[in-house]
Amino acid sequence: MRFDRLRLSGFKSFVDPTELVIAEGLTGVVGPNGCGKSNLLEALRWVMGENRPTAMRGGGMEDVIFAGAATRPARNFAEVSLVLDNSERLAPAGFNDSDQLEVVRRITRDVGSAYKANAKDVRARDIQMLFADASTGAHSPALVRQGQISELINARPQARRRILEEAAGISGLYQRRHEAELKLNGAEANLSRVDDVLEQLA
Ligand code: ATP
């Protein structure tokens, strides 16, 4: 699925609604230091479900909300929307009923994050899975932030393996396996409780 446009409002330094058209081919973002280039990349990660404040260069998730400036008060929410081209119907079932898929994430102070896909409420997990399956998730190696190349060179083999798995599009399967294991453990615990009850009845 191709990214068509990114819309930001109240996200970090992008206090006013800003729209970025992502044309076909390679996209470069240029500008002076501190103008918000990295914030754009972070907005992309964030709308795809990034939940680690460190990955967003913040102390807490609410740090993505515009914190105010000398002439402007802080905002109460931040919103990022990513419009995807789904004309080839590559989105997974449940997201695949139109040519365009718009994913919106909004965070409100003291309330938290909420996600929408084509205006319908969805869970964070659904969005994370959508992008993990499309190999473009929040941790995707396709998004290269500053300093990441040297981190990669110095990374331990296990960390490098995770990057290769993300690129191969199998990280969604790992998440599903983990969830299946949790369910299995829960079922085993229930079974042993049933055994105890049966023993007491015998
Ligand atoms: P460089 O080229 O130096 O890496 P850059 O263009 O990548 O810079 P960013 O790091 O994206 O710039 O943007 C940094 C700017 O964003 C800083 O001016 C910082 O004050 C501002 N900023 C970050 N978080 C917030 C926030 N929550 N509210 C307001 N401004 C913010």
TrEMBL record:
<comment type="similarity">
    <text>Belongs to the SMC family.</text>
</comment>
<feature type="coiled-coil region">
    <location>
        <begin position="170"/>
        <end position="202"/>
    </location>
</feature>
<comment type="function">
    <text>Required for chromosome condensation and partitioning.</text>
</comment>
<feature type="binding site">
    <location>
        <begin position="32"/>
        <end position="39"/>
    </location>
    <ligand>
        <name>ATP</name>
    </ligand>
</feature>
<comment type="subunit">
    <text>Homodimer.</text>
</comment>
<protein>
    <recommendedName>
        <fullName>Chromosome partition protein Smc</fullName>
    </recommendedName>
</protein>
